[in-house]
Amino acid sequence: MPREMCAKWSLVVTAMLSLLVWAGAAEASPYEIENDLEQIIRDGRIGTTEISVTVMDPATGDVLAAINDTEPMIPASNMKLLTSGATLLTLGNDFTFRTVVAWLPDAGGGKLLVHGDGDPALADPKLLMQQDLGIEDFLDAIVEAVKREGITSIGELLIDDRIFDDELVHPSWPLDQLNRWYCAEVSGLNFHTNIINVYAKPAKSGSPPSITLEPSAQWLTVRNGARSVSKGSHTAWVARDLNSNKMTLKGDIRWASDPVEVALHDPAAFFGDLLASRLSEAGIGPSKVSRADGTDILPEGRPVLVIETPLDVVMRRCNVDSYNLYAEAMLKRIGFAVTGMPGSWRNGASVVRLVLLEHLGAQTSDEVVVADGSGMSRENRITTRMLARWLEVFLRKDPAVRDAFIDSLATTGPTGTLRKRFKYVELTNEIRAKTGYLTGVTAISGYLIEPGTDRKVIFSIITNKKPSKVPLSAVRLTEERLVERIDQWLSGE
């Protein structure tokens, strides 16, 4: 063979071998990362904890790892990814919650109407604090708006919370936790995240401490079953009767500390009484407080004040801070938007399933059970395979929708649910993710994003049935090492 042909043939063979090596590496890489992830799980000291993992390359659609990926799992707060995403796709990224205070003049002295829109952010203390405002500033703003309209006497304060149904608590939520902030009732007129802050200040050792409420509500009586102590542990807690706002402060009070956040019963009625008290203090009434019922047809009236919250604010509070009330309010709000009936867990869940069907196909019916919006219910089920495909949906949307969803997720830093995570592993790329936790359940799902190139990888990790003897820290560290290996794959390692 001539020397020139030998040289050319050598180049061709070399090129073909290079292509084969490249193709082999591309084909092998999914199996390589899956094997690595399985080894991390084996080394994780998580005992018999059940774990499901899906990793996907959205650029190619390739599944890089699938470990028990079709097993329906309790998702805990990863359920918020379904709820917030379905809300974004149903209502649109430009949607705004609007709570309207309106004046309805009539012969009986006139009615002041507060029309709820299900806004979970209405007077949220964290959001008020970001504006250097307190709850009394918020209430004063309503009173001042009424006075600016020249209203000097109010015959009736009318509360309209009918945008949602009257099932305030999901039937599968734990009864012994309904006084906690994360089990707050869900109303068509939410207020102050539907909690009241109970402050306790110690007195002489052995005597009852003093009690202060925020917001101040003189008609509420908190029974004092606590005692002041000068040594030992500070163990303040508050019990609340199941269907009323009768509360009891309990425990040992050693110092004046952060408040005990207590979930209120019937927050719309509480808000009505609270606003009525502030209006009365201003000398303009009302004579009575009423609730709009199902048969009332109310005129729009003359707007006195409109309080608006953009959907992106609600989504971030839901996903970055994992605030359950926000997720449940979104679920019921899309139920109302689609059906025209009062939003409920039933019709909201139906809308979520409809959106999943539209974007992921009929097979999703076997991969998801939607009980509530936040993941507080243990009746929810989802597969990591479906959750990863759901996360992929938003990467195919227009940039405004895509960015609204990704920006609503937590990242490492001083705030959000990832602020204490990934301390013992090193990530090269940006993480945007949603965590989840219930007793025996953990989850973390989201995106890793390469700076500069914007390349992404999708991951979903859910664990269930953690034995009590297995430390939660061991499970979380295993999750983080799995994410670290996925991060290395994205970086080409």
Describe this structure in words.
- This protein has helices at residues 3-42, 79-91, 125-130, 135-148, 267-281, 311-319, 324-339, 345-360, 384-395, 399-407, 472-490; strands at residues 50-57, 62-67, 96-104, 111-115, 156-160, 195-201, 210-214, 222-228, 237-240, 247-253, 260-263, 288-291, 302-310, 368-369, 381-382, 430-438, 441-449, 456-464.
- It is α+β, with helices and mostly antiparallel strands and 493 residues long.
- Helix 1 packs antiparallel against helix 11 (472-490).
- It is globular.
- The relative contact order is 0.18.
- Residues 1-29 have low confidence and may be disordered.
Would you summarize the structure shown here?
This protein is α+β, with helices and mostly antiparallel strands and 493 residues long. Helices cover 34% and strands 23% of the residues.
Total number of β-strand segments? 18
Helical segment tally? Answer: 11
> Strand-and-helix sequence, N→C?
HEEHEEHHEEEEEEEHEEHHHEEHHEEEH
Order of strands, main sheet, comes to 2-1-18-17-16
SSE-based structural type:
alpha+beta
Sheet with most strands: 5 strands, antiparallel
**What integer is the average pLDDT?**
93
Beta-strand percent range: 15-25%
Indicate the percent of residues in helices.
Answer: 25-40%
Uncertain residue segments: 1-29
Q: Any idea what the shape is?
A: globular
Rg, please? 27 Å
Distance between the ends: 42 Å
